Amino acid sequence: MRRPAGIRWVENGSLLVFMVLTGWHIWGLEARLEWAAAAALVAGYLAADLVSGLVHWFSDTYFEERTPVIGRLLIQPFREHHRDPAGITRHGAAELTGNSALALLPVMLWGPPESGVLGVWILSFALSLMATNVIHRWAHAGEVNGVVRALQRARLILPPEHHARHHAGDHRSAYCITSGWCDWLLDRVLRRG
Ligand SMILES: [Zn+2]
Ligand SMILES: [Zn+2]
């Protein structure tokens, strides 16, 4: 069942604003770490894209949907997505981010918020991975709001044209689903395997 576009717009917009506000908070709290904090934010976002690609590649390549524990939690969502790429646009927030939240719990507990630059990196990495399936969903949505489209065009988040490469072929390239920035690296490294 398709939910009203207005509600989805509010969800998507809220998420985006939340991320901007998070960055603003970090900026304010760690004023003396400004440049280091900015670098940690970018590094966290970059690392999330790399991890999204590695987890996606692993899930597309190894094990089966019937494998105990990880089959249902990890393998099945990725395989299901190949059979029905548009299905992701019908997933609710919990379905989109629940698995990520579960996997990120140890990461969030790894460094306390007051651990300076490391804390900023952890927060950026975790929030970026939480946003990954939402960004992935936007790449499959026929219509997105203007802000999201602008971010896609600027290649700051996964552009639909870039991600289409994964679905167009044999699902053996363009695994990264946060920004797609790390695909130039993963496509070279993983193709050899
Ligand atoms: Zn996809
Ligand atoms: Zn895939």
What is shown here, in short?
This protein is mostly helical and 193 residues long.
Question: How would you characterize the overall build of this protein?
Answer:
By secondary structure, the chain is mainly alpha-helical. It has one domain (5-191). 70% of the residues lie in helices and 0% in strands. The chain is built from eight helices and no strands. The protein is globular, with a radius of gyration of 17 Å. The N and C termini lie far apart (40 Å). The model has no long low-confidence stretch (mean pLDDT 86). It binds zinc ion (2 copies). One zinc ion (ZN) binds at residues 81, 85, 136, 140, 163, 167. One zinc ion binds next to α5 and α7.
Alpha carbon gap, first and last residue:
40 Å
Bound molecules: zinc ion
Shape estimate: globular
SSE ordering: HHHHHHHH
Helix content: over 70%
By DSSP (H or I, 4+ residues per run), the number of helices equals 8
Radius of gyration over C-alpha positions, nearest whole angstrom: 17 Å
Structural key phrases:
single chain, 193 residues, mainly alpha, 8 helices, binds zinc ion
